[in-house]
Amino acid sequence: MSDIFTFLNNFKTKPFFRNILIAFVFLLGLFLISFLIFLSQKPSEPGVPPPLPSLSDQGKIIATIGNEQIFESDLEAELAYYPFQPTTSQKTKELKERLLTKIIQDSELLQEADEKGLISLDETVFNSPNKNYTKRIELVKEAKVALQAYEGQISGESIAVWCYNIYVPKIGIKEALDQHMSIEEAREFSIQKAKEIAREKIEKLYQDIKIGKITIKEAGEIIKNDSSLADIDPQYKTNAYQKFESLPKDEPFYLSEEANKVLWSLEEGELSPILTLKDTSADGKVRDSIFLIIKVAKREGIF
């Protein structure tokens, strides 16, 4: 009993003792609150998406694409599989708009592959609010591969000599200035000179390839070893030779519709003519920029 009176007396008369006790009680309270919050949070398993919305929301139709109705549950499933979850309502809205576009594109792709007999669709993956979305995602991947094979793939090689790669070629600038040309005149002089030199080099290689004197790969090595091209295209070694494997038709070769059209017109073993491709220069003008030769090695699929 005397110990209790001593404790109470110390609490009333000794501020230091009282402050320590108050601090201890405060920290103990914080610890208990934090512990309770920790227990209330159930960590999600890695790689497992959050649950889909309630059954009353799953059946809501948000779009119709061909023979398929798109449901709210589809959108929520896409959102659940998205690697980075939005942190605000506005970001959630923007993400849902992008994901809806993806769902529409996936539906069109699945229906196209189904019409061509490349895949089979049923309610477990198509036109149902209760579809197996993991299975649908895998089927979309399968459909993409199948359509690429159906539409054809092409393999081969190409060589290129660039005469204008974004910036004005260095070649010819000193000669132009020695002739007291204006800056603009010197610029155009250099561009034209680079074009003439590049064209001459690619034409010589083209003739040697046609008569079988060199292969297209050997022509690429000749370009790589021609240091004079550095004053025309700083990236001449990288641009010299390209080998492409199983290129799908919807992937424009050299980002050029013209080159792609010529590529897909070639038979196996056939050499293209010299193509002149255009590009946008640093001044915004569209100019002749690339001399390109393509040779097809293999064609696959239905054409």
Explain what this protein looks like in three dimensions:
- The chain has 303 residues and is of the alpha+beta class.
- The chain has three domains: 2-39; 58-151, no CATH class; 153-300, Chitinase A, domain 3, CATH 3.10.50.
- 51% of the residues lie in helices and 16% in strands.
- The protein is built from eleven helices and six strands.
- It has helices at 2-13, 15-40, 55-58, 72-81, 89-115, 133-151, 173-178, 183-210, 216-224, 236-239, 257-265, and strands at residues 61-65, 68-71, 153-162, 241-248, 275-280, 286-300.
- The chain has a four-stranded antiparallel β-sheet.
- Strand 1 (61-65) and strand 2 form a beta hairpin.
- Helix 4 packs across helix 5 (89-115) and helix 5 (89-115) crosses helix 6.
**How many strands in all?**
6
Distance between the termini: 101 Å
Spell the H/E element sequence: HHHEEHHHEHHHHEHEE
The amount of helix comes to 40-55%
Strand content: 15-25%
Q: What is the annotated CATH architecture of the largest domain?
A: Roll
Number of helices: 11
